[in-house]
């Protein structure tokens, strides 16, 4: 029986070689889909185009912040980090272009921004805060929301930075008030005595006074000054903690994440493998029905089990070759570690075999090649989409259903295994899972072929 | 053999049967496709299996070929010794004639496969087209490949399911010349057909199936005699009578 596998595989390979259109569809289409999917996954959302309208008069756009010159335009640009910024002259032009969809949004710096910022930084209790205007085109809710979220996050960062600088300035002033020294702000200029110096003078003065009410008064003022020195000394540290009250320490409980580009490569390889193997496996079995040769084969010495195994083998081999092509093609760009290359082939072969067995089962159900291909595509699209849903992003019932679907089709474990082969992750578990799936789908194909 | 009508003057077969089936019954859910059918075919004999659509001809051939299992009854010859030639060519259209023959010879375990392939190419008049893809041949050419594949294992019995249905008259004539040659060489042939004229011209005996039962078995002349020598009229009368009875 084993000697018959060779002629069967050779026959199928010969039939495939003489069907260039079919072969092209089966190999080129999955490759294109996989590469596009990988490309989409490896890149974040593209930078939105944002317009900047600076209405602050020329030469008046800077403000002194503790000796550092802060430019309002630089501040605005900081809000727009991660976007493609273009300057425009007027607010009207910005409104028109945002409304026309030329840009995702615009940020307008009003003429009084710097004056207001300067007033705030003078620490005179100025309450009229500088306000930037953000224009968005809300006809595309996703893009508008993305831009709002981006600007909010950047605004938080920029405000936190200014607050920190203000606290540093305030802390400096407080230090001079405590210790004494030169001060040139808050309307004061020249040498400042400081509370510590005042306390010392008062202590000495009290020592030279005779006992009595005057000496008691001086001592009382001196104790107050000493108390202020001792307690206000902690204030800069307290203010510093307010400037940066919460810090984040990130700990991964699952080990370090796989590099996004590597993951995209694994997805591209797994998708192409799945599509090629399933379409090929399904097509090879359905072709036997279409050519009416199935009856003739099962009347000969060929038993259905080895017949299906031969088709699974060929589908798996071709798919693994396509997967190797995808991974090998991506390797120089993604920078895959060379020492893991020996793990690639077993991972691709196992994923190909399980996917080929699934295809063979679908082909056993279909009356001819077109029906088999349609059935395969209809099944694979949701399987791939479901397989890419991240854990924990859906409710518990849906999550259990997704886990169940992922477990019975080869895409999920195949993606895990290919990812592990390319960079890191569990290797043996998914490998065993795929081997079990191969046998299970072959058994289903055997039953389906009896119809 | 179970039959509703038989010509007693003609023996079922001149020599001992090489294919004998008894009590064959096959059901598809509630429908009885074959009901207690028996059949003998002798070496060198051509038997035409006649019947209207749905009478059970293809089911009977499938049971005899081992493609399906009967619900009851027995076939006295293992499927490997029965050559099966389906109605539509069951060969790979993208492979050449020779590649098809070589593949099936190997899968059938034919001894000295290369010599057998060459012989079948000659017998089926396919030598000139041996390296052409089957898909490039005419309907008649494809049917000859189909028959050649069915004969690769040199079976003593050959089953043919409406072998001439897709052929033009000239191709039919060539095919039947080939088949009668096989019978002269001692093979037993059982061929289903809708063409009563073909049965009259080439068959030694006819078996008429109506509604899953054997309605007649005997020579074509004996069947024709039941309607004043008109075989077609006799066949139609038999079918209508059988259907009325059912």
Helical amount among residues of chain B, as a percent range? 25-40%
Low-confidence stretches of chain A: none
- Broad structural category of chain B: alpha/beta
Radius of gyration of chain A: 36 Å
Instruction: State the helical fraction of chain A.
Output: 55-70%
Plain-language structure description:
- The complex is a heterodimer of chains A (about 450) and B (about 250).
- Chain A contains 17 helices and eight strands.
- In chain A, the strands form three sheets. A four-stranded mixed beta sheet of chain A has the order 4-1-5-6, with helices on both faces. A two-stranded antiparallel ribbon of chain A has the order 2-3. A two-stranded antiparallel ribbon of chain A has the order 7-8.
- Chain A starts with a helix and ends with a helix.
- With about 250 residues, chain B is α/β, with parallel strands linked by helices.
- Helices cover about 35% and strands about 25% of the residues of chain B.
- In chain B, strand 6, helix 5 and strand 7 form a beta-alpha-beta unit.
- The longest helix of chain B has 16 residues.
- The chains are: A alpha/beta (about 450), B alpha/beta (about 250).
- The interface between A and B is medium-sized, with 19 and 24 residues.
Give me a quick take on this structure.
Chain A is of the alpha/beta class and 451 residues long. Helix content of chain A is 68%, strand content 7%.
Keywords:
heterodimer; A: 451 residues; alpha/beta; 4-stranded mixed beta sheet; two-stranded antiparallel ribbon; 8 strands; 68% helix; 7% strand; elongated; B: 246 residues; 6-stranded mixed beta sheet; 3-stranded antiparallel beta sheet; 8 helices; 9 strands; disordered N terminus
Indicate the topology.
The complex is a heterodimer of chains A (451) and B (246).
Chain A: H1 2-17, H2 20-42, E1 49-54, E2 62-65, E3 68-71, H3 72-79, E4 84-87, H4 91-99, E5 105-109, H5 113-121, E6 133-136, H6 141-179, E7 181-182, E8 191-192, H7 195-208, H8 213-232, H9 235-243, H10 260-290, H11 294-299, H12 304-334, H13 341-365, H14 369-387, H15 396-408, H16 411-422, H17 428-449
Parallel strand pairs in A: 1-4, 1-5
Antiparallel strand pairs in A: 2-3, 5-6, 7-8
Chain B: E1 17-28, E2 31-42, E3 46-50, H1 57-65, E4 72-75, E5 82-85, H2 97-107, H3 113-123, H4 139-150, E6 157-161, H5 169-184, E7 188-192, H6 196-202, E8 205-210, E9 213-218, H7 220-225, H8 231-245
Parallel strand pairs in B: 3-7, 3-8, 5-6, 6-7
Antiparallel strand pairs in B: 1-2, 1-4, 8-9
Protein name (chain A): ABC transporter permease
Transmembrane segments (chain A): 21-41, 263-287, 308-331, 343-365, 372-389, 427-449
Membrane topology (chain A): Multi-pass membrane protein
